[in-house]
């Protein structure tokens, strides 16, 4: 009689907890659909008893399966599984996920950190992946240090890396938080790891910025080479081949952004009296442009750019090549020119070489 009374009271307790908490609707649906009554309780830190089915828990979590099977092997039946250290509602959301494989945005917002810890402890990879993604989307100045520490403890490298990047981008604000002060006082190794990551990130940014500036320079030189060929073969607003009148359009050239500046440099080069003695910096720049063109040009006998063939012959007569830095510059400019040509429409790429082949034999300017 006492045993029947005890069974009835236990069942009543299961039912009250099962249907009285909003997070247990999935369990209630299973029970009302004909599934046997819950045969185990999950005890939370707040004293809440959450009814559950051992078959469901064991099928989703290998850790819970071991907890359930261990008493059975010794002839005992474990009726309570303690899940302590996290809020009661977080445990309730965890149990609901075990039944339904669903987690609401509200639960992720409130208990994402706790759910990540539970998913790691009880080996529920689907929930762990959901928490990793959800927490990465909800990083803030105030919580990023806590999430970083948890990601390290829970072996979540993607989330850990995203936290480091977030801290690197907002470090001035993060270092004012209580979480950062806690790391400084209690976890010097983590502090060192974070600072090293930020330092490496800054170095990468500097290298990227320097590389981008270099690429822009090579693109400008590549455009200057094309602009030089354009001026020498077609003529432009104020400079052109000696047998062609410059265009009547006195406005800036729309074909190349560097055209106007290069025409001014050519005009200066043609009239400067200091260039003979090498005393003019602008003339030296023009000599370098002509030499660079000659190093790139593969048709010097038909090229219309002044001194192209002469530079080629001088290199052959002296029987010595250019220095390593100059060869590297030539390769970079050629590469930039190739990348620039690939970005043009196919038809225009096919027409440009044909135009260059048709123009030959003239190596002087008309100013």
From TrEMBL:
Q: Name a GO CC annotation attached to this entry.
A: nucleus
Biological process (GO) annotations? regulation of DNA-templated transcription; response to hormone; response to hydrogen peroxide; response to salicylic acid
| PROSITE patterns associated with the record | BTB (PS50097)
One Pfam short name: zf-TAZ
Taxonomic classification:
Eukaryota, Viridiplantae, Streptophyta, Embryophyta, Tracheophyta
Keyword Zinc part of the UniProt annotation: yes
Q: Where is this region: Disordered?
A: 341-367
- Protein name per UniProt: BTB domain-containing protein
Q: Which SMART domains match?
A: BTB, ZnF_TAZ
Metabolic or biological pathway: Protein modification; protein ubiquitination
Organism expressing this protein natively: Liquidambar formosana
One example of the protein's molecular function in GO is:
zinc ion binding
Indicate, by first and last residue, each region the UniProt record lists as having compositional bias (Basic and acidic residues): 348-361
């Amino acid at each position: 009689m006492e045993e029947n009374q005890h069974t009835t009271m236990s069942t009543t307790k299961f039912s009250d907890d099962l249907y009285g908490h909003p997070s247990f609707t999935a369990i209630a649906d299973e029970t009302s659909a004909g599934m046997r009554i819950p045969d185990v309780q999950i005890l939370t830190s707040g004293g809440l008893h959450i009814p559950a089915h051992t078959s469901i828990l064991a099928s989703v979590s290998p850790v819970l399966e071991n907890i359930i099977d261990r008493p059975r092997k010794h002839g005992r039946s474990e009726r309570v599984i303690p899940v302590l250290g996290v809020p009661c509602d977080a445990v309730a959301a965890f149990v609901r996920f075990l039944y339904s494989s669903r987690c609401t945005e509200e639960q992720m917002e409130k208990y994402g950190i706790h759910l990540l810890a539970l998913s790691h402890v009880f080996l529920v990879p689907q929930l762990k992946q959901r928490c990793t993604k959800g927490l990465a989307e909800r990083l803030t100045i105030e919580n990023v240090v806590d999430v970083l520490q948890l990601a390290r403890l829970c072996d979540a490298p993607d989330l850990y890396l995203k936290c480091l990047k977030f801290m690197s981008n907002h470090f001035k604000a993060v270092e004012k938080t209580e979480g950062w002060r806690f790391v400084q006082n209690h976890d010097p190794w983590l502090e060192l790891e974070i600072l090293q990551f930020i330092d490496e990130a800054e170095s990468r940014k500097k290298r990227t910025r320097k590389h981008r500036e270099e690429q822009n320079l090579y693109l400008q030189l590549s455009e200057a080479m094309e602009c030089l060929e354009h001026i020498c073969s077609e003529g432009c607003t104020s400079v052109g081949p000696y047998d062609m009148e410059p265009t009547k359009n006195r406005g800036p050239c729309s074909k190349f952004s560097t055209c106007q500046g290069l025409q001014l440099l050519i005009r200066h080069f043609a009239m400067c009296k200091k260039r003979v003695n090498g005393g003019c910096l602008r003339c030296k720049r023009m000599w370098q442009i002509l030499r660079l063109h000659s190093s790139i040009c593969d048709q010097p006998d038909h090229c219309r750019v002044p001194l192209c063939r002469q530079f080629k012959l001088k290199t052959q007569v002296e029987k010595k090549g250019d220095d390593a830095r100059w060869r590297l510059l030539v390769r970079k400019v050629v590469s930039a020119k190739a990348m620039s040509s690939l970005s043009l429409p196919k038809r225009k790429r096919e027409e440009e070489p044909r135009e260059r082949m048709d123009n030959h034999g003239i190596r002087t300017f008309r100013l």
